[in-house]
Design brief:
Strand order of the largest sheet: 1-2-3-4-5-9-10-12
Number of domains: 1
Distance between the termini: 27 Å
Helix content: 10-25%
Largest sheet: 8 strands, antiparallel, barrel
Strand content: over 45%
Number of strands: 12
Oligomer: single chain
Low-confidence stretches: 1-24
Order of helices and strands: HEEEEEEEHEEEEHE
């Protein structure tokens, strides 16, 4: 199944799963893009000032030569998350206060093949000794979310409406894994001990990165 088909199916399932009474007043589906990737949502008004929303987001892209603790890594970000939210509309218009949760895989893959001596932990190794360093930076699967925005689809007579949402995902301290592959010292206990020390150094470096900024915008279709 293509990613687009998965996004469309998620929105359709979210609508089908909700009680028909929920949709008596207003409902919408939307598509957008932002720091959580491309995504779709289905929304329904429960009360004049309260709506519920569920959706799916997918994000994948590569960054070259990001430096962590003195080592340059090729970096790939891979997020695949479902979200469930309560949208509060205190003025019964598009202004929105949101609380909810993102659930799913949120990882950053690291890949470094040194071409000169590199310090790992407290020791220096040659490229031939190290080979390739492969690692992951994993964020918590369950991440609470708080945000603010403008989404007037449920309060507008227009079929098509634009929306914007901004907030923060509370991802917790990242968990890091790192290993070496293809070097002449790949299985050497000294290198392995220094790799573990390097993991500890990295965890100290990213320990304060417990929050992920969320900024998304898109278009909504009211039914």
């Amino acid at each position: 199944m293509s990613r687009f088909s998965l996004l469309a199916a998620t929105a359709a399932l979210a609508i089908a799963a909700a009680p028909q009474a929920v949709f008596a007043e207003a409902k919408s589906v939307d598509a957008g893009i932002g720091t959580t990737g491309i995504g779709v949502n289905a929304s329904a008004k429960l009360l004049p000032w309260v709506a519920v929303r569920g959706g799916y987001n997918y994000l994948q892209f590569e960054l070259d030569e990001m430096e962590y603790d003195g080592i340059e890594y090729d970096t790939e970000i891979d997020f695949s998350t479902f979200g469930g939210f309560v949208d509060i509309h205190p003025f019964r218009n598009g202004f929105t206060l949101t609380g909810g949760v993102y659930q799913g895989n949120k990882e950053v893959m690291l890949d470094a093949t040194p071409d000169e001596p590199v310090e790992i932990g407290n020791l220096t190794f040659t490229p031939e000794q190290v080979g390739t360093l492969i690692g992951t930076v994993a964020l918590e699967d369950t991440a609470p979310y708080l945000g603010i925005g403008w989404d007037g689809a449920l309060y507008s007579e227009s079929m098509i409406n634009f929306w914007v949402r901004a907030g923060v995902m509370f991802t917790g301290s990242p968990e890091i894994a790192l290993d070496a592959s293809g070097g002449i010292l790949t299985d050497d206990p000294v290198l392995q001990a220094e790799i573990q020390r390097e993991v500890e150094n990295l965890e100290e470096e990213v320990d304060d990165y417990e929050y992920y900024p969320v900024i998304n915008l898109g278009v909504a279709f009211r039914f």
